[in-house]
Amino acid sequence: MFDHTRFSPPLRQTFVAFGPILITISLGMTEGYSAILLPQLNSTSMEIDEETSSWIASMAALPMALGCILGGYLMERIGRKTIHMVTCVPCVMGWLILYFASNVTMILSGRFLTGFCVGLLGPPTGVYMSETSEPHYRGFLLAAISFAIALGLFLSHLIGTYMSWQNTALTCCSFPVICIVSMLFVPESPTWLAKMGRIQEAKEAFHWCRGYSQEALTELDILINRQAILNDEDKKSFVQVIKDLNKPEFIKPLIIIVIFFVACQWSGLNAITFYSVSIIQQTLGGNFDEYLAMLIIDTIRVVMSVLACLLLKKLGRRPLAIISGSGTFVSLFILSSFTFAVKFYPAISAYTFVPLISLITYVAFITIGFVPLPWTMMGEVFPLANRGVGSGISALSAYVAFFSVVKTTPSMFLHFGPEGAFFIYGMLALIGTIILILFLPETKDKALYEIEDHFKTSK
To answer: How crowded is residue 251: how many other Cβ atoms within 10 Å of its Cβ?
Structure first.
């Protein structure tokens, strides 16, 4: 490892997060890739009908659920750092398959493999960053996950606008390669090392990341003591493990995070991400360059992702969730109403600024809260003993909802029209916001053990 003592703990924690953020950028490019791939395929000799297009778009989402189950298991078996480095290999392979693809089967295979990698890193990324960062900076660093996804989307759309889909795929290979190199110089999660009984290594890794402040020393002592108690327990049977999962400190945060993920996904952001060009064509008509609109929306998402990092450091999780959910609902309601009104008053279709501004405010509001918060809190709220299981189940629910949204988007727009689809997404955003107002806890600036104790004692 490099001489880390020359840098302050916050800088070291940022460097630890750098590798996961790099690979997440490549995974974000996976989510945005279909938007530039499908229009280009239509101008090639490959025969792409609507059904094939929907499978190409949703194929990346199909293995994400399986990937996150395996990711939640492997993060406990081989470590948080190691699984990030291992995942870089199939990620590179998937992009190379897409680069060399000469038929639909190869495209589907490449999309499947890169999507599988998205699922693999769903559980461990937030957990690794949570376990290596101090409470004051944790929200900021965890929000960088959503920033990385937004940046990946923007880069895939930007590069794909000016380059072929093959060269775009080749560009995506560089991020996981750099990720492997950067992670050679950072420690494994001290929490995982303690779980494996490697106490001295855990202390060294903790001090590498957090330094020797009184707050850090107190948190380290509590971590070591609690993990020692867990390690001293007799090996539990499968039935006992299931009973442990029914404890309030596990089941309460699990229900909250699953609802949060479903509300986020069914607010429709990934539907617009995967089919952005065709949706913008239907919404704005022929009066606006849809590729320019796509890049404007992508830029807004990147900017708001940066703002989300800052807001998570300043505001609490609850107010940000409420602001985000409310703004998302209002934007979708206006977008639905305008699109519906155009059917009866075609002349107003010339006012393209109304749906465009609604799309922009929708992306802005959902990006500052609904997108980063469930991933941020997933790394915070689960107890030490069941962090891998909780993160795996949560990520599984996110990707099942993700796949269902992406796969059903063409049918929803076909049967309900844009106005109906936007209205459904808006109502689900409203319902999710109401539930979060009632039950979402505040975790800002709290140590992980404090959050665990909160769920043990709260109603």
So the answer is: 14
